Amino acid sequence: NAGVTQTPKFQVLKTGQSMTLQCAQDMNHNSMYWYRQDPGMGLRLIYYSASEGTTDKGEVPNGYNVSRLNKREFSLRLESAAPSQTSVYFCASSEARDRGLWTFGSGTRLTVV
Amino acid sequence: SQQGEEDPQALSIQEGENATMNCSYKTSINNLQWYRQNSGRGLVHLILIRSNEREKHSGRLRVTLDTSKKSSSLLITASRAADTASYFCATASNDYKLSFGAGTTVTVRA
């Protein structure tokens, strides 16, 4: 099915380990986003990429890095995982900021122990 | 800080009743969107209302927007058990960001 695909779906890391969350979309969207969702807090924007070749910080970027590999793919990297990064991570894409057609992936549940 | 704030935090209704939830936001917006999230799942886009619109309908959903009060409401009519979910409002400003509120958890009792 067309949409946003995230891998992995689940991951357990030890404190200090690194990992990369992968995201790919097949809708030819220009913009891509990474959010985290913590209980009772809704979604918070980590990083976004308005178009291929650009990335910008969102609300909670500390401890993360991103790469817009091409128009389809946008990865999120945790260089040294901390327990505070235990969360559910969602990738999303949109055609344009004012068209509002956002599509979300099914999420990655990350636990840092 | 989050742009949108939903009210109430939780809502429990009987099947067939209507559910209303509200969203307030702080800064000017380009559009406001409502999403549904079933437990443990991703977000599903429900409806979008632009800043120059006041009301929008989609099936059993009715959304209003009052930009003077910086608020929106989502009404679900004739609720069903399948409507049990968390509902989030999200605001899009004149940048590329979509800011979410903390959500309203709706439980529809059979």
Furnish the topology, listing elements before pairings.
The complex is a heterodimer of chains A (113) and B (110).
Chain A: E1 4-7, E2 10-13, E3 19-25, E4 31-37, E5 43-49, E6 56-57, E7 64-68, E8 74-78, E9 87-94, E10 102-104, E11 108-112
Parallel strand pairs in A: 2-11
Antiparallel strand pairs in A: 1-3, 3-8, 4-5, 4-9, 5-6, 7-8, 9-10, 9-11
Chain B: E1 5-7, E2 10-14, E3 19-24, E4 31-37, E5 43-50, E6 55-58, E7 61-66, E8 71-76, E9 85-92, E10 98-100, E11 104-109
Parallel strand pairs in B: 2-11
Antiparallel strand pairs in B: 1-3, 3-8, 4-5, 4-9, 6-7, 7-8, 9-10, 9-11
Put simply, the count of helices of chain A is 0
Secondary-structure element string of chain B: EEEEEEEEEEE
Average pLDDT value of chain A?
92
Structural class, from helix and strand content of chain A?
mainly beta
If helices are DSSP runs of H or I spanning 4 or more residues, what is the number of helices of chain B?
0
Radius of gyration of chain A using CA atoms only: 13 Å
Helix content of chain B: under 10%
Low-confidence stretches of chain B: none
Uncertain runs of chain A: none
Q: Round the Cα radius of gyration of chain B to an integer and report it.
A: 13 Å
The major β-sheet of chain A equals: 7 strands, mixed
What is the oligomer described by this structure?
heterodimer
Share of residues in strands of chain B: over 45%
| Mean pLDDT score of chain B | 92
Q: Roughly how much helix do the residues of chain A carry, as a percent range?
A: under 10%
Greatest interface and its participating residue counts: A-B, 27 and 26 residues
Shape label of chain B: globular
The coarse silhouette of chain A is globular
Beta content of chain A comes to over 45%
Give the strand tally of chain B.
11
